[in-house]
From TrEMBL:
SUPFAM superfamilies: Ribokinase-like, YjeF N-terminal domain-like. The keyword Transmembrane helix does not apply. The keyword NAD applies. Binds 1 potassium ion per subunit. InterPro entries: Carbohydrate_kinase_pred_CS, CARKD, Nnr, Ribokinase-like, YjeF_N_dom, YjeF_N_dom_sf. The lineage of its organism: Bacteria, Bacillati, Actinomycetota, Actinomycetes, Micrococcales. Belongs to the NnrE/AIBP family. In the C-terminal section; belongs to the NnrD/CARKD family. Keywords: ATP-binding, Isomerase, Lyase, Metal-binding, Multifunctional enzyme, NAD, NADP, Nucleotide-binding, Potassium. This is Bifunctional NAD(P)H-hydrate repair enzyme. Residues 231-546 form the YjeF C-terminal domain.
Amino acid sequence: MIRAHHAAAVRAAEEPLLAAGEPLMASAAFALATHVVAELRARGRVAGSVVLLVVGGGNNGGDALFAGTHLVRRGCQVHAALVSGDVHPQGLAAARAAGVVVHRVLDDADPAAAVLALARRCGVWVDAVTGIGARGPLRDPAAAVVAALAQERAGWPQEPVVVAVDVPSGIGVDDGTVEGPVLPADVTVTMGTAKPGLLLPPASGLAGRVEVVELGLDALAAEPPAACSLTAADVADLWPVPGPDDHKYTRGVLGLAAGSQAYPGAAALAAAGALRTGLGMVRYLGPEVPAALVRTRHPEVVTVPGRVQAWVLGSGVGPEDAARTHELYEHLRAALDARQPVVLDAGALTLLHEDDHLPDLPATAVLTPHAGELAALLTARGEETGREEVTAAPARHARLAAEITGATVLLKGPTTVVAAPDGPLYAQHDATPWLATAGAGDVLAGVLGALLAAYGDLLAAGTADGGGLPASIAAVAALVDGRAARLAAGLPPEARAGVPSWTGVRGRSGAPGWTGPVPAGGPALTGVPIAAGDVAAALPAALRTVLA
Ligand SMILES: NC(=O)C1=CN([C@@H]2O[C@H](COP(=O)(O)OP(=O)(O)OC[C@H]3O[C@@H](n4cnc5c(N)ncnc54)[C@H](O)[C@@H]3O)[C@@H](O)[C@H]2O)[C@@H](O)CC1
Ligand SMILES: Nc1ncnc2c1ncn2[C@@H]1O[C@H](COP(=O)(O)OP(=O)(O)O)[C@@H](O)[C@H]1O
Ligand SMILES: [K+]
């Protein structure tokens, strides 16, 4: 699990160490320099490379200035552009003494142009404008400098190498929002622990590879993270594996009330996802057209009522289908009365648009909206919200919906965000954009429902919030579903797997003095198109990569 903590928690954990005289900044700076050197070495050579430090007014800039002293010793030519009038004094003195060339760009009529002219000669840009001390989006002059660098880099996406210190300056460190200019990083070297903004979208998309520098912030180990991302090892911990005494009822029975006369396919896709996740039985309840399709495609599925341990409700049900929506309502009431976990997808989400006919939901109810559905739900419940607002701040809106309804919310999108009314946020970036295809959500609902069914008796017997278990189950479902999508698309199972491959050193045309690294190129893996059924079919292969 990658754990991320809020800025305030990091400060609190640093306090006793700083009071005891621990040289945290020296450690941070050395680690930063080591990572810059590693990036340079991976791309060619270290000595002779030209490095730009973009230095702000706090300790984040201090990290970079001290790192600069190490880089000079490794033979780099290091320039520091000071974008604040008041930078870390000891860091500045040490940098000067070591031979870092200091540029007071604020004395220039156009600081952004001055930094840009300098940057064009440098193969590595170290973004040390702000870290956890940032308040709001970047302000000028730092904002103008960062905007100019970001624009320059957009034209040369593979050069220079951008290394962000702690976080890419300008992101919402605690919530992952991006409300002003940010320079996208190739690597973020983050101090002590990850920060939520490195995991949560949209800011997570600007962080590149994240390297966590161990600073011995022991106090954080005892605290629940503010946000986290599960990894393959967490799947192995949570995935239900049958023992010798298990039978189909102990393995879990999923009640599936999905699909309709108009959208029968959703029933078959959700069943496919559930069956390949592993459970005792899928029991399908619905009209004859989808029921017949499910029986044909999946003869294992039972289509008569009976005992279940969890439900998937609503995939493939349109809000105009009043009769089917009423059936969903009856299933939901019964599930809540029996304390059974339940997935509310698509048409079942509209049941929550009014709050006077249902009790507050428990966290064992998991909502699976995409951004549009979440915006509609929030608006119906008195929080006027558009789809774009959800996309700009997914974590905040998922949490809000969880607080309003009491349920756990799995918000679908490029990064899946899971929020319960309290506890950590989960951010899973395991899939591929090829997954954005009709029916993919139905498969995911089936995967999630099957996992909840396997944990059904435990969740029904436990506390109403399931002790945070429903949120971690939802994150695991997104992870495995995302991996299956990647494998189906012909991609390696891990998203963001390691450093992109770069080799060689060449000069940058029109950039005299350029001595930095340049990527060898070669097309990135794009993968191939997939249909939702392919994702379900790839689930066993995806599980082989995590349960072996
Ligand atoms: N406390 C410590 O000794 C350690 C701190 N560390 C580093 O120090 C950083 C935190 O340092 P600080 O608390 O000094 O804060 P930062 O350096 O993150 O930010 C504070 C500076 O940014 C400016 N600033 C704030 N908001 C701004 C905005 N919106 N636009 C433009 N400028 C803005 C402030 O005026 C101030 O100069 C961490 O992110 C980490 O990089 C590490 O060296 C580990 C040890
Ligand atoms: N850009 C993207 N990158 C990766 N995954 C995506 C992206 N956009 C959507 N997804 C995923 O694709 C699936 C689409 O589900 P959904 O929108 O419910 O489709 P449907 O309702 O047709 O089944 C979800 O798992 C979602 O998280
Ligand atoms: K930074």
